[in-house]
Fold this protein.
Amino acid sequence: MRKPLVAGNWKMNGSRESVSALIDGLTTGLTQFAKDGLVNDIEVAVFPSAVFVQQVENALSSTNVAWGLQNICTAESGAYTGEASVAMAKDFGCKLVLVGHSERRAIYGETDADVATKVERAGLAGLVPVLCVGESLEERQEGRTDEVVARQIKAVLKNSAPESLTELVIAYEPVWAIGTGLTATPEQAQEAHAAIRGLLAEHDADMAARTRILYGGSVKGSNAAEIFAGADVDGGLVGGASLDVQDFLTICRAAG
Ligand code: 13P
């Protein structure tokens, strides 16, 4: 059985104070859920801005909530101003790392080849790569969703060492649903997730069965349960709503 994962991508938001309040609220809420038997066995993770990783490590190291960076460098170390490496992520207790988020692809020009390198680097170092894929509105309107997502995933399957993919998580995040308040319908999400699992199955049946596929794109407390009900939806990658403790807790509950 695949364990559901709910992850909050905080993007470039927060302050020392708000991060502290968010983590306090989250850990208190999750502890209460556990006491009340409200959430089954799920994994919860947060992706703070890198500057807050030490603070997050201090606050979460004795809890079940995991954390990770929103991006890592393609290179191992050296003259890469502004970047953070896989080794740094590990040094600060990160368990996961986001790779190829659509904002990184669109704003910073990350290519499928960069993404494959990052997934490989993260996976080989023992981090869980969360590979983000998804089509633009134009691509969806042209009926090219499966083709675009397949291209993004195949680039990784082809170019990243197989040993780096054992714990791979895929986040299907349609670009048109990110930060727009527009959400894929549960049917659209399930359809895309099933296509992704089918693609993985062509590559490796075991991998298809074990790989968690998260949905991301305007997930909220009010729509999480219906989206997570899809057979191939194994949780969510949450942006805006992960900054609101109560909303994020509601989403965690919907996954458990
Ligand atoms: P929103 O939940 O704000 O749409 O963001 C989704 C996302 O990009 C998570 O990585």
Notes: The first strand starts at residue 5 and ends at 9.
